[in-house]
Design a protein that fits this description.
The protein is mostly helical and about 180 residues long. Helices cover about 70% and strands about 0% of the residues. The chain is built from 7 helices and no strands. Mean pLDDT is about 80; it is low at about 155-180.
Length: about 180
């Protein structure tokens, strides 16, 4: 594995772990309880959201819309993916904003309302929390995408775009060894 890929994937994997932690804790904060059922809901929700987020490339690469039997399945899968990413962002943002606003995470029986938490942040804090949360939510998507890419192609402008734009089979051409 080349050093650029190793460094980038390592950073994104740490960010991905932080995303899972903040999704779990944010769900607990929103539920407002630290007992067995909320912990179970948070754990299962975090694992499912993480799986959907990590599988972004596979979910959006599917082009089987010509087959009527798969159309509904793919459409439902993509709708659930959108909901999972929204859930991930909301819960991670709630956790990050709560800690920055109050300097602690309190699971003492009252549900955290995001609007109240966000009002306690100043402008700079809000920008940092939004930026870091966005990066952490996107990190599992990027790990799933980058692990399959040849990073040497990026520097030459010949790799696929972040969402597959310019890749062979999708409007572009395949990059072959003869291109070098």
């Amino acid at each position: 594995m080349e050093i650029k890929r190793f460094v980038l994937l390592t950073a994104l994997r740490f960010s991905m772990i932080w995303d899972l932690v903040t999704t779990f804790l944010g769900t607990l904060l929103i539920l407002g309880n630290f007992s067995f059922v909320p912990i179970g809901i948070s754990l299962v929700g975090t694992l499912i959201v993480g799986a959907f987020n990590f599988s972004t490339k596979s979910i959006w690469e599917r082009r089987d819309f010509q087959r009527n039997d798969l159309f509904i399945q793919i459409l439902l899968l993509r709708i659930v993916w959108v909901l999972a990413i929204c859930f991930d962002f909301l819960t991670s943002l709630t956790c990050n904003a709560t800690y920055v606003a109050y300097r602690r995470l309190d699971f003492g029986g009252t549900s955290v309302e995001f609007g109240n938490v966000f009002r306690n942040l100043n402008g700079s804090q809000a920008m940092i929390v939004l930026f870091v949360t966005t990066l952490t939510v996107v990190s599992p998507m990027m790990v799933g995408y980058i692990r399959d890419q040849d990073m040497e192609l990026w520097g030459r402008g010949m790799g696929c775009g972040v969402w597959g734009v310019g890749c062979g089979g999708r409007g572009g051409r395949n990059v072959t060894s003869s291109d070098f």
